[in-house]
Amino acid sequence: MKRSLNTTILIAAIGGVTAGCGQAEHSLVPVSGQVTRGSKPVAGASVTYQPMAESADPLNIGPGSFGRTDTGGRYTLRTFDTSDRQGAIVGRHRVTIYLHSQAAASDAAGKSRVEQLPSAYTDGSLIIDVPTTGLENANIDLDRPRH
Fold first, then answer.
1. Distance (Å, rounded) from C-alpha 135 to C-alpha 131?
2. Rounded to two decimals, what is the model's pTM?
3. 119: enclosing H helix or E strand
4. Alpha carbons 132 and 27: distance in angstroms, whole number
């Protein structure tokens, strides 16, 4: 009986140590916004936020986040990692947007088409800072190039 209790404690201790290996806690905060073109909402856009390395450990910057706009152009971010948590890492992010054409879902070869946007929205040059309080209005107007 005593031996099995010690074995159980040892297994629990090893599990607790290995569960933390390779995973740092990153602060996630809620991020949502609207994608528009002029004053019209853009539905079906994919919005990704990729944290930028600003620390001494650039390999452990945390998961990226993504969202897809609804019919009103609104999006809410969720993490890319297996935990699929709502929000984004606090800090600077490279933001990219892709529009999936509703009218022409595929080309002649059957591949889905992605509508072309100005490079400021697809090349990672759009930078958004996510504060510790999160962002409720991370709005992006595709007719207004940002740098």
1. 7
2. 0.71
3. none
4. 8
